[in-house]
Amino acid sequence: MNAVLKESNRFRTLFDRLQTRVHALALTSAEERADKIRRLLKATLEARPAILAAAHKELRVNETDVDAQLLMIKSEAEFITRNLAVWMAPQPVQGSLMTLGKKCYIRYEPKGVVLHLSTWNAPIAEAFVMAYGAIAAGCTFVLKPSELAPHSAQVLADICAKVLPEDELAVVNGGADVATELLQLPFNHIFYIGGHQVGRIVMRAAAEHFATVTLEMGGKNPVIVDASADLDEAGRKIAWGRVANAGQVCLAPDYALVHASIVDAFVAALARHMTAMYNADGRGFQRSPDLPRIVNRRHFDRIKALLDDALDKGAKLEFGGDTDADDLYIAPTILTSVTEDMRIMQEEIFGPILCVLPFNEREEAIATIRRRPKPLGAYIFAKDRAAIDWFMARTTSGSLVVNHNLIQSGTNPHLPFGGVNASGIGRVGGRATFLECSNARSVVEDQYPAGDPNIMFPPYSDKYKKMIAQMLAKEIRVPDAAIDLINGIIKLTSVFKRR
Ligand code: NAD
């Protein structure tokens, strides 16, 4: 049974058991792994009341938004279980001149014991996307949920304990101290979701054991609003993207670069839609049942400090700005006249505040983006195709959405999710999580020796030396079809030779 483990020395024992179990799991079929994922999903959906209650206590998230999270993992589980047999099957690769007569393919094998240090803003989805991928790959898995979402963490522990033995899937609850102890163990792969500071700690710890890592971090996601954009659409979608989950979404637009000719109209559209979504009845944003709260006092103080610093340094409050520390409430807020010296333009906001910056020349917008680390997500609003292509070609990010935002995650399992450098390393979702947890083992089987099988061994013959010299001298270019044909002939000849 999963227990909330308290003693540091118990992690080693747990780890050893997980490591032993991996050998048996490596031999399991796609159907056996799929069955585990289906059972986990079923137990999760059955725990919906507890999940809703936990999300409400932690972030005051409404039922529909939590259901959207459940839908995300349901489609993830269904996609994996439908495709796993194909992903697990040995994948033949094209032969080459140097492997004539040999069979070449890739086998996907479990990396081993996987650790996941998860976070709190969508704790159920963030836990299970990684868990499903690890189970699909045949790995054993340790989940350390975030201590900032303790109710969800307990629900996760209960669900997992109900479905799988602890030596396959263990939930270890606790904070940084527990994470630190876990990081000392020789995990084979580590998933981490969170900020940069801890991301560095995780990467350093992984280096100690040469563990591979998938880091899902954040940063300042830009949204570009071109002069050709449909302003009302842009305002509506960006108001939603910025304020959903009270801005506590890694992909949320953090600042908007808006063509100077439309800044006023854009700000007005944004404010109009923020109001329509969260204060349509005029009773105040704070009373909206759809506007969550900031996760805790530390994060509230952090966001409030960013706002105060910006206002002190001359930012203009265009909309919102109300805060209530006792209620952990921050109103949807729009700032203009922001400058580079303000902390709000240096740190990820992770709250419902959008900074709007004007640009006259496109190059100015690009320069603002390039002064910052590569973002997780970027957004372009434009009707002009040439403008979309221009901005797309001159920016980089983990993902890009044109004329919308936030919709690149959890919506299409064929689109892997992740960042670039400071915003993340590696990809998750759909087959990507399976691949992160798998060792893509290259296999060569020497089946039907072609020509003189001893030619490559010393003492080297003149014929061999000449062959190497010829290959060095010119481009080696044999069409795949010719390789396939020669391989077929070799196979046929060797079958006859054997008779
Ligand atoms: P965090 O870094 O404080 O915590 C995340 C995990 O790290 C928790 O499990 C925590 O216990 C652990 N941890 C904390 N301190 C640690 C330490 N000293 N050593 C080892 N482990 C430690 O999380 P946060 O910064 O509050 O999360 C918000 C950040 O996460 C934002 O930057 C956001 O953009 C990012 N995020 C990214 C994604 C994504 O998928 N890319 C998703 C959600 C959030």
Describe what you observe in this structure:
The protein has 499 residues and is an alpha/beta fold. The protein has three domains: 2-217 and 430-440, Aldehyde Dehydrogenase, Chain A, domain 1, CATH 3.40.605; 221-411, Aldehyde Dehydrogenase, Chain A, domain 2, CATH 3.40.309.10; 448-498, no CATH class. Helix 2 runs antiparallel to helix 4, helix 3 (48-59) packs across helix 4 (63-88) and helix 9 crosses helix 10. The protein has helices at 8-25, 30-46, 48-59, 63-88, 123-137, 150-163, 176-183, 196-209, 231-243, 263-278, 297-312, 362-370, 385-393, 431-436, 462-473, 480-498; strands at 91-92, 102-110, 113-117, 140-144, 169-171, 189-193, 212-216, 221-225, 253-259, 316-319, 323-324, 329-330, 333-336, 353-359, 377-381, 399-402, 424-425, 438-446. The termini are far apart. The protein binds nicotinamide-adenine-dinucleotide. Nicotinamide-adenine-dinucleotide binds at residues 117-119, 121, 144, 146-147, 175-176, 179-180, 193-195, 198, 201, 216-218, 250, 348, 350, 376, 419, 424.
Under the CATH scheme, which class of the largest domain?
Alpha Beta
Described by the principal axes of the CA atoms, the overall outline is globular
> How would you name the CATH homologous superfamily of the largest domain?
Aldehyde Dehydrogenase, Chain A, domain 1
Tally the structural domains. 3
Q: Tell me about the biggest sheet?
A: 7 strands, mixed
Structural class: alpha/beta
Residues in helices, as a percent range: 40-55%
Family: Belongs to the aldehyde dehydrogenase family.
InterPro entries: Ald_DH/histidinol_DH (IPR016161), Ald_DH_C (IPR016163), Ald_DH_CS_CYS (IPR016160), Ald_DH_CS_GLU (IPR029510), Ald_DH_N (IPR016162), Aldehyde_DH_dom (IPR015590), Aldehyde_DH_NAD(P) (IPR012394)
GO cellular component, one term: cytoplasm
GO molecular function: aldehyde dehydrogenase (NAD+) activity
